[in-house]
Write a structure and sequence with these properties.
It is a single chain. This protein is α+β, with helices and mostly antiparallel strands. It has one domain. It is built from six helices and three strands, in the order αββαααααβ. Helix 4 runs antiparallel to helix 5. The longest helix has 14 residues. The chain is globular, with a radius of gyration of 13 Å.
Length: 97
């Protein structure tokens, strides 16, 4: 699974990742901060998780708290809000829709 596939994944069907092709084409070259600034918080969280850099997740948290009313206290809470905790194993195929 490539970074773009993970960042723009909208769900899974068995071992197949389903990817939002339109969003991926528009934002595939955006870095984590650019995704968050664009309001694509789930994608920004996934990008930060893909990088493995804690500072990227903290950057997303900071932007999220600045741009939203509810906010989040921690980076871990942010990953729970968007329902992602890391790159899944066992993905054998990617379908772009």
């Amino acid at each position: 699974m490539r970074r773009e596939d993970y960042v723009f994944c909208i769900g899974y069907e068995g071992s197949t990742a389903i990817v939002d092709g339109k969003l991926m084409r528009k934002h595939r070259s955006d870095d984590t901060g650019q995704l968050a600034e664009a309001g694509l918080f789930k994608q920004a969280v996934c990008s930060a998780l893909w990088s493995g850099k804690a500072e990227e997740l903290e950057e997303v948290l900071s932007i999220f708290n600045r741009k939203t009313v509810t906010g989040a206290r921690t980076a871990e809470e942010l990953t729970r809000i968007f329902g992602t905790s890391g790159v899944p194993e066992g993905v054998k195929k990617v379908t772009v829709v």
